[in-house]
Amino acid sequence: MANPHKGEVEFSAGGKTYKAVLNTNAMAALEKELGQRVHSLENSLTTTRAVLWASLRKHHADVTLEATGDLMDELGFFKAGDLVRDIFTLAFPVADPLSDKPTSH
User: Fold this and answer.
1) What average pLDDT does range 86-103 have in this prediction?
2) 31-56 burial, b for 16+ CB within 10 Å, e for fewer?
3) Which residues are within 8 A (CB) of 55 and not within 5 positions of it... i.e. 6 or more apart?
4) Whether 45 contacts 69, CB under 8 Å
5) pTM here?
6) Mind listing the pLDDT tens digit for each residue in 30-68?
7) Is the Cβ–Cβ distance between 80 and 52 less than 8 Å?
């Protein structure tokens, strides 16, 4: 089961359950793959696929970039986009000014 407090998102595709997290290693792999810094990424199909691929690496290292595209096809474009948005939301929480704890968007 995914732990949102650790930035993990769980989803199912093709009869299998996956766990994604955009942690430090995932961000480094993403930057290497795209040749851009995470904070300067632009919204595109290539970026969406790369973010999902990098986020899967911790728990599903065997999933290739191409296989990630197949997962996106299985999910559908909009659901895949929503999933990547959720992954980013958990990776970069917004601080609550009235609390010392970060909150999600």
Assistant:
1) 74
2) bebbeeebeebeeeeebbbbbbbbbb
3) 9, 20, 21, 22, 26, 84, 87
4) no
5) 0.86
6) 999 999 999 999 989 999 999 999 999 999 999 999 999
7) yes
